[in-house]
Amino acid sequence: MLRILNLEAGYETLRVLKGISLHVSPGEVVAIIGANGAGKTTLLATVAGLIKPYAGEIIFQGRRMNRAPPEEIVAAGCSLVPEGRQVFGTLTVRENLVLGGYARRDEGRPGVQRALERVYQLFGILRERGHQLAGTLSGGEQQMLAIGRALMAQPKLMMMDEPSLGLAPRAAQAIFGTIVALKNAGMTILLIEQNARTALRIADRGYVLETGQIVCEGTSQELLDNHEVQRAYLGKDYRTIDE
User: Fold this and answer.
1) What are the tens digits of pLDDT across the range 113-148?
2) Helix (H) or strand (E) run with residue 236 in it
3) Is residue 239 one of the residues assigned to a domain?
4) Is it the case that residue 109 has pLDDT exceeding 80?
5) What pLDDT, on a 0 to 100 scale, did the predictor assign at position 106?
6) Domain extent for 7
7) CA-to-CA distance for 79 and 153, rounded, in angstroms?
8) Is 198 among the domain residues?
């Protein structure tokens, strides 16, 4: 579904990604782990069209997307759940969700309503909070809203950037449970997550990113069993999906 070849990107003269190559197949959950500053967020932002690459290829469903604008990438079926949630705090929950479906506006109001119902089935609390300002939600509820907003575009690939960041353990557990539910429903997911152990337990495969380069890849179990990965990224972890 997604193939990245020798991707280089960054900010003006600062090159962050240095020849990244990876792929995500339909139905897979692929985790990218690495230290802060490794380039993980830059990678997702580049795929989402927020940053233009210096070199390399981004191919989504057989189509080259290197210079496509973000709205075209969303319409093609690739949605981003950004780091820090970034909900529109002065708009209601429902307004945030409807905005998430803008790429599907050709389907009209019935299409938006169907998408809303699917989100509400996953997150019943968002239906209850529909007329509440998004900025007044708890951190966990805002993360649900950010995921729901991305789902409104009916993506084929969902990219998630640190979905548990800043959340209390119970709220983080709920978000991890949502990711598992999406996986079980067949959603293809590219996941960046600070909780590396839990990310790998959810994922099918993973990549380790260090200073803008892929230094290790394999199945989730291979990475969980890798002593170097254990030493660097898999310390004591109390927030796991099987607690």
Assistant:
1) 899 999 999 999 999 999 999 999 999 999 999 999
2) none
3) no
4) no
5) 63
6) 2-233
7) 7
8) yes
Q: At what angle do helices 93-100 and 108-122 cross, to 10 degrees?
A: 120
Whether residue 242 is contained in a domain is answered as no
Alpha-helical (H) ranges within the chain are: 40-47, 70-76, 93-100, 108-122, 124-128, 139-151, 169-184, 196-202, 220-225, 227-233
For residue 16, the model assigns a pLDDT of 97
Question: What is the reported pLDDT for 236?
Answer: 52
Q: CATH number, domain at 125? A: 3.40.50.300
The answer as to whether 149 is a domain residue is yes
| Distance from C-alpha of 130 to C-alpha of 159, rounded to nearest angstrom | 24
- Give the count of domains, the chain: 1
Question: What tokens were used for 159?
Answer: 């990219």
Tell me what the mean pLDDT of segment 187-202 comes to: 95
Find out whether 129 and 162 touch, Cβ atoms under 8 Å.
Answer: no
Find the angle CA(147)-CA(150)-CA(152) to the nearest 5 degrees: 110
pLDDT at 108: 66
